[in-house]
Structures are given as structure tokens and as C-alpha cells.
Amino acid sequence: xxxxxxxxxxxxxxxxxxxxxxxxxxxxxxxxxxxxxxxxxxxxxxxxxxxxxxxxxxxxxxxxxxxxxxxxxxxxxxxxxxxxxxxxxxxxxxxxxxxxxxxxxxxxxxxxxxxxxxxxxxxxxxxxxxxxxxxxxxxxxxxxxxxxxxxxxxxxxxxxxxxxxxxxxxxxxxxxxxxxxxxxxxxxxxxxxxxxxxxxxxxxxxxxxxxxxxxxxxxxxxxxxxxxxxxxxxxxxxxxxxxxxxxxxxxxxxxxxxxxxxxxxxxxxxxxxxxxxxxxxxxxxxxxxxxxxxxxxxxxxxxxxxxxxxxxxxxxxxxxxxxxxxxxxx
Length: 330
Description:
nine-stranded mixed β-sheet, 10 helices, Dehydrogenase, alpha/beta, Rossmann fold, NAD(P)-bd_dom_sf
């Protein structure tokens, strides 16, 4: 993922003009050296000791691109060294750790935010704008399907709750952003289907209750071969006056009721407008740009940890429900 972050910065003129990489830290320093050479990063400190490199380079920002189990120690070290920290997701492996990072960011007066890059893809921004415009009335339900046969290798194939913790959080966060309301409770069933190449939890089905009488359902699998959905999931968003379908790529279809008679009422198609600000639709680059702008202006970044902890809470509540077989309050 560090390669993905550096690629996003290198491809964006505005980010390249304001960000200078001064250190790369890895448990395997050779990997950091290889990355520095690949991106032609000169005069960079390389090491395996985070505290030592932070002390040597005195950076303004720490990009935290580590496995989830290392998140608490890495973010804490960055904040205590006076860095603003932008983390990979999930922001923590427990709510206790998440609350500690929120507390520490407040205590140190530094910003901590999370790369929820799916918020910054064009489709999600278009849907949010479309819903806010009231084209299909008040939301009543959001339904998402995610089915991909993904062969990662590496740590993901050894993780517990791999789909919920490492991937579903993207969809949960996007749904919360689109709905514009808070999660209340969840019932979830998790499984590791026959033939799965993951150690645990490669598939899950969840029903979330959101405020304002809104239902959000999620069906997902990371070991579903033969008919992949988009990485952004397939969406059906239902309002009191109509429905929006999104395939997770370029295809939007929206219709609303246009008649008042008959068993099935007449429908009319509705246009789903493009986002107002294309600068907010560049995935990782947009999250990083939003974070840098927040540091410079003093405003709150969109994916700040004190808000993103609500998306983490959805994931952890789903995991608890899967373990207990019970509805869990969030």
C-alpha cells in the first residue's frame, strides 16, 4: 500500500509541490530502499526504528501504512513526535484503541485521519450529491453486494475477519457517508466458505439499522469466483419516490414515480449529475489533499478519526454479532 500512496502523490502536481518525503521506515529496510529507488526519492532517511527516523527528520506528517495490529503504536509515536498522522484503514483493531488515538490526537493538538479513499471516488460523490438533492425522496434503504475472488497472498490470507475488517469497512463508511446518518445496530453472519483460501471470515452478510428508519444491507465475499462485482460494490438505493442503481463503475440508473394511477405506477428516468468538484474524486490523492488542506487551514479533515471511529464501530459490531449470533447495538 505504501507504493499506492507514493504513486498517488507522484501523479498529482499539487501534491508533489507541497509534499517532500524525508524518511521511509520498514521492518525490512531493504524494502524501503527499493521503494526509494523506484520513486527516485533522494536524500531520504531509511531505517527500521520509527522513533529514531522521526527524531532525525522532524517531519510535519507521518503516513501510517502498516498492518492493523501495528496501528496503535505507530500512530501514537507519530502524534507524540508532533506529527499529523494519516493512517491506512482500519483506524484501529478495537474501539478502545480507536478511542485512545482520538484522545491522543486531541491531547497533542495534532490531526489524525484515515484513508477512506472510497469516499473520494466519483460514484460515491455523485450519489451523495444526488441524494442531497432529494431526487428520489427520503432514503429508506441502501443495499450493497460485493463479490470478488481476490488472491492477495500475504497477511490478509492469515487475518481473522478478513472481509469485514480489511474490505467491508470501505463499503460501510461509504454507506454512512451517503446516508448522512448514524448507525444504531447490526445483525451479521460471517463464514469462511468451502474452497476459501483465507484462514477466516472471507464472506459475510449484515443488516444494519441506521437512524431515521433507514436499513443498510451488505452481502460480500472475497472468495467468490466467476462473476466479480466492482471493487466499489453494486448498490441499490431506495427512496420514498424512486430508486438509484449503481454498478460500482460508470453505470448509473435512476427512476422515480411519475404517475398516480395503476398497480405499478409510471416511472421517469432521472439524471445523476457529475460531481461539482472533480478534485474530490481522485481516491487516495483526494484524501491526502484533503488532509494537507486541513492542516493548512485548521479545519477538520473529512475522514478525521473522531468521525471515522463510527465506521470502525460498524465493523466491530458486525464482528461481535457474527460471534454471538445476536443483534448488537452500535
